[in-house]
Amino acid sequence: MANFKTMTCTGVSLLLFFCLIPSCLAYNVVSFGARGDGRTDSTSAFLRAWSAACHSTSQANVYIPRGTYLVRTLNLNGPCRRRIEFRIDGTLIAPTNYHAIGHSEFWIMFYKVSGLSVYGGTMNAKGHGYWSCRKGGKSCPQGARSIQFMWCNNVLLRGLTSLHSQRVHVGIGYSSNVRVENVKIIAPSGSPNTDGIHVQNSRGVTIYGSIIQTGDDCISVGPGSMNLWIEKIGCGPGHGISIGSLGSSYNEAGVANITVTNSVFTKTQNGVRVKSWARPSGGYAKNLMFSNLIMKNVGYPIIIDQNYCPNNNCPHQNSGVKVSQVTYKNVKGTSSTQAAMKFDCSYTNPCTGIRLQDIKLTHNDRLRRPAISYCRNASGRRGGTVTPRSCF
């Protein structure tokens, strides 16, 4: 049988399953020495397959067949000569000893790759030992993101299942035109800092049709993020979908043009949240749209928190982040706290241009206490029926 790594996909029906890029060359990691037995370290084989595919003069495919592949940190660097596909039909597992990847910022890193498609498969970072270290107050490594895209353009991530990341499951930084769809992200509700998807300093990112169950934000949007579209997300457990935290430094890029729509939040700490540290900053968050959302027993379904301080050790300052032009439209469901809508904004930089339209949030409370809205340093307007009654 011909070696997969040298066989052209065009016209060869056997390999059409492996390559979705027309006229590509397929590089099977097994041909480079990987073993799908769950015990053999296949890191070097993966790196050799990537290098060969990245240097190919034809569009290329790195193929991981069925099996369980043990890999340590993978630096999958570009730029590559042509478009490249990374197809996972098997399962990637991290070493049981969390130090093996925990001293890196990531487990798998795609760096400066343009025209990249990553399909399918499962990644299990085995984060339980690392979380126990963190919770035990021990001296722990910084922890690794499971999959990171840095300085990448024109990226598609589809069908991946990410299990038990040490920290963030999927990171997107300094990248553009990225689409994430039909991914499934799972970690226990008590796992620390295991954000599902984190976007920062990136433009043109779409996150669509995904299930995220984790211990921190389902999706977090950091400074420098522009033109994001988030749709059809099932979030929970977790901390909700957050813009921020913002304002950690003064010279910080702003956030603009973010849409979250047609999504469901189930037993999350928050629903849709904007959060910033109470400290001086030149940052901003503007043109935010939250629409067609269902809240099921969510702590704070709608919240702007400009006094974010998770460890209660922050200086008594005011947030310099300017929050403006935020729309909440057709948000319905139940709140597990009485403050179903909370706008806790900066004294020196009040929130402006908040619009509430067709809101129906009730308090899920055995004592039948009504839901309320809370405002501090916030102004806006309402339209349609707004329950609880707007506080501005």
Automatic annotation (TrEMBL):
InterPro entries: Glyco_hydro_28, PbH1, Pectin_lyas_fold, Pectin_lyase_fold/virulence. It is found in: Secreted, Cell wall. Keywords: Cell wall, Cell wall biogenesis/degradation, Glycosidase, Hydrolase, Secreted, Signal. The active site is at residue 239. The keyword rRNA-binding does not apply. It holds the Pfam family Glyco_hydro_28. It comes from the Eukaryota. Gene3D superfamilies: Single-stranded right-handed beta-helix, Pectin lyase-like. GO terms for biological process: carbohydrate metabolic process; cell wall organization. Coiled coil: none annotated. Residues 1-26 form the signal peptide. The keyword Chloroplast does not apply. GO terms for molecular function: polygalacturonase activity. Belongs to the glycosyl hydrolase 28 family. This is Polygalacturonase-like. It comes from Nicotiana tabacum (Common tobacco). The gene is LOC107786918.
